[in-house]
Amino acid sequence: MKRLNKLRFQNRYYSLGPTFFSAAYPQGLKNPHLISASHETATLIGLDPAEMFTNDFVQCFSGNQTLTGMQALAMVYAGHQFGTYVPRLGDGRAMLLGEITGSDHTWEIVLKGAGPTSYSRNGDGRAVLRSSIREYLCSEAMAALGIPTTRALCLIGGDDHVIRETIETSAIVTRVAPTHIRFGSFEYFSHSQQTQHSLTLMDYVIAHHFPHLALESQKHALFFAEVVRLTARLIAQWQAVGFSHGVMNTDNMSIVGLTLDYGPFGFMDDYEPGYICNHSDIHGRYAFDQQAQIGLWNCHALAMALSPFIEKDTLVDGLKQYEIEFMQNYYNLMRKKLGFKNQHPEDVSFIDTLLALMAKHKVDYTHFFRSLCSLSDSEIKTQHALSDLFNKDPAFVHWLALYFSRVQHEGEHTESERTTLMKQTNPKYVLRNHLLQIAIEKAEKEKDFSEVNLLLDLIRRPFDEQTPLEHYADSPPDWSKKIVISCSS
Questions:
Q1: N- or C-end of the chain: fewer Cβ atoms within 10 A?
Q2: For the segment 141-159, what is each residue's pLDDT rounded down to a tens digit?
Q3: Tally of CB atoms within 10 A around 284
Q4: Using CA atoms, how far apart are residues 37 and 174, in angstroms rounded to an integer?
Q5: Distance (Å, whole) CA 288 – CA 416
Q6: Known catalytic residue: 393?
Q7: Per-domain residue ranges for the chain?
Q8: Can you tell me the distance from the alpha carbon of 294 to that of 377, in angstroms, rounded to the nearest whole number?
Q9: pTM (2 decimals)?
Q10: Of 251, 261, 269, 364, which is the active-site residue?
């Protein structure tokens, strides 16, 4: 592991030229202080975690100092926001400092909240503490769940005041990812009739992030098809864990299939197919049960942007893979959640019946699947107290009987093996909004960041029992139903 002053930055994106970005100049925070740091992310980029507690680290990642090789820039892109095309967006409060080569990958390092850029649209380019805590923790929570995501290196607070609905405290999240290029990056050049730049960007992405395609004669078509598959797999993982992104605009869709830009996200409590986590989404465009089809809609938008270079029939063939990939991955994940190893023709109907019953009785999504992990065969057979969650609905009792029969016929796992495998798939802890709200209020009102760091430790091991912290897996209190999360959050 390297010391901070031994990290060497490069910026391959900078080599594309100023058409692809604007120069950026971080505005450091006043009296910066380290709120939290992720040892795991430090290790990814080859940084000794001990360095994160030095003053030089805090000054660097609060935007007050630079390291050798840093060339800060803000990427330009466009995007469909709630279905309406916006021709010029770009990084309004994010700045790409450059890249660091870790043990096996090259990672882009981005400051989010370091001041205005050319794309801030009269905004201040700052990020408030509450939204920064949410992004920082959820980035690491998703990684621990095995879901592709941007990572967070650290969360640094300052004394600067930021005006939103009220006066709030500023903070900066340092975001880490192989690339922050998004669907909207291609839309920008396509819709502005700069097709040559779109081709340049596609070749850049293939060379650096899909190198196995670089020598293929149909590399552009293969690239598009792979992006479609990655997107479908990602959203299948969201659905299986009960995660709702909240703002699936095309400028928030990663070209390499990462969960990108954490705003008004939410992990479902009671199972509600039409769950809307974003208060600003008044029409439910990005409701939980719409995410799969919006992912496909966004892939269509990307297809339009790439149509000058890829034949229409080839794009259509690529898009057809979306539903196949999503359905296969989603139902495979749901089989794992139920402890099934084998695939049966009736599985889709069986799983959909369960979800319909959960919706009818407003059953806590995470609790149900985790509770199912712990049931012995005899408890399943005798219907157990789990049926109380469904008000002893005969339809669920019947479902549970069918489940017991299926478990018995699997025959490849002992009871202990089945429950162990299920616990490795069904998290006990997810980053529920009420847990975040408690941490945010302590941070804002008391400058007490202990809850932020406790949650970081908790969500690093979402599948473990963590007995002393079991109350963090409890159902949310009634007051949490009034929490409002909007795009500004």
A1: N
A2: 999 999 999 999 999 999 9
A3: 13
A4: 10
A5: 33
A6: no
A7: 4-181, 340-423
A8: 39
A9: 0.96
A10: 251
